[in-house]
Structures are given as C-alpha cells and as structure tokens.
Design brief:
The complex is a heterodimer of chains A (113) and B (117). With 113 residues, chain A is mainly beta. Chain A is 0% helix and 56% strand. Classes of the chains: A mainly beta (113), B mainly beta (117).
C-alpha cells in the first residue's frame, strides 16, 4: 500500500531558527495536507495543497506540493515556543477511488528557549 | 456544530468488554473518517464513510471492529471483546466532500483515548 516517509523524525532547535521537514511517497498523490498535533488534541490542519508545484503560505509557514507529485515540504520561519508539537504530512493517493488520507509518521519539534 | 465532536474523551474498558465510540462531524460534511493513533505513532486509517455507506473499510484490523453512520451524520465505532492492543486514541475526521481539490480537507476531532485493562 501507499506509504509516506516523513523526515526528520525529531528536531531540536533554538527559538528563532527556521525549520524544514519533508515527506516523500512511493506513488503519486493528488493532495498534500500538513497538520500539527498538540498533546492530548487532534491534528489541526495547517496548509492544504492540490496542484503540483503549488506553493502556499500561512503566516510563518510555507508548504509546497512537489512537481513530481511524490513529495512535499513544510518550512517554519523564525520559530517560537508555541510551534512545539508534532507535525504530520498527509496525502491522498491518486489511485482511482482512493479517498483515505495516508499519514506520515510525524516530526516532533522541540524548541530550546 | 463548530467542529468535529467525539465522545467520550476517555474510556477505560476491561478486557473483553464492548465499547462504542461516537463521532459528530461538522454539519454538512458528507465524508467521515476514523483513524487510530497508538502512543507516539502516526495515524492509522480504519474506515471511510461517504454519506451512510462505507466504500473503504480496508483499515479495520479485525472483525471485532465495526462502524456505522446514520442520517449522513453521526458515526459510531464499535469494538467488541476489547483487548489490550486496542488501547489507543481513536480519531474521527470529516470533510465537506470527498475527492480532490478545495473543500476536501479533513478536520479532526479531539479523539477518544481508549485504555483496555
């Protein structure tokens, strides 16, 4: 089945640094979504991408849908303490009839003050 | 409602007990998804509903797991004869419509944390 490889698994950075994480898939996806999950909460949608090459920003967050349709990245600029959490990529495979979202294993972001 | 609502938030079940987990999707959302998240892990797909039908139930781990959706709204995930390995957070999500493009984004509830003892 479709799998997403998300990296890095964890990041330890200083406040104010920029962050970059990415996801790659073994097959073509037609949707990429990025979520953030805080402890004890459900994932919260950050950015949605629908077209190859699409670059979308949401405040300090920027995400891109790779031109090969098999990858996506998320950047966070000038990190702040509230950015701490687990970030998940999710994609919808292009296989006909596939509606489920496939998730990466997450990137745990820790910020040192 | 304003968001996806799940109940209960926490459930402790004795091994062998049946449990029912409820999901109220965002009003007007036609697609509904159930996922399972074990401690420190990613999200594992369980089942997807379009309206009241489930075109994809490929993620249900065994026949002890079942789900239904009524009135195109509320969904219930039922686990029969619970086992310790069923302990996890069960997350529900809904989207306005299935397919691709705008309005297919999935919004999640807070989840139900199930602990089987």
């Amino acid at each position: 089945g479709q799998q997403l490889n998300q990296s890095p698994q964890s990041m330890f950075i200083q406040e104010g640094e920029d962050v970059s994480m990415n996801c790659t898939s073994s097959s073509i996806f037609n949707t990429w979504l990025w979520y953030k999950q805080d402890p004890g909460e459900g994932p919260v949608l950050l950015i949605a991408l629908y077209k190859a090459g699409e670059l979308t920003s949401n405040g300090r967050l920027t995400a891109q849908f790779g031109t090969t349709r098999k990858d996506s990245f998320l950047n966070i600029s000038a990190s702040i303490p509230s950015d701490v959490g687990i970030y998940f990529c999710a994609g919808r495979p292009i296989i006909q009839g596939a509606q489920k979202l496939v998730f990466g294993q997450g990137t745990r972001l820790t910020i040192n003050p | 409602g304003a968001g996806v609502s799940q109940s209960p938030r926490y459930k402790v079940a004795k091994r062998g007990q049946d449990v029912a987990l409820r999901c109220d999707p965002i009003s007007g959302h036609t697609a509904l998804y159930w996922y399972r998240q074990s401690l420190g892990q990613g999200l594992e797909f369980l089942i997807y509903f379009q309206g009241n039908s489930a075109p994809d139930k490929s993620g249900l781990p065994s026949d002890r797991f079942s789900a239904e959706r009524t009135g195109g709204s509320v969904s219930t995930l039922t686990i029969q004869r619970t086992q310790q390995e069923d302990s996890a957070v069960y997350l529900c999500a809904s989207s306005y419509r299935p397919g691709t493009g705008a309005n297919t984004e999935a919004f999640f509830g807070q989840g139900t944390r199930l602990t089987v003892v």
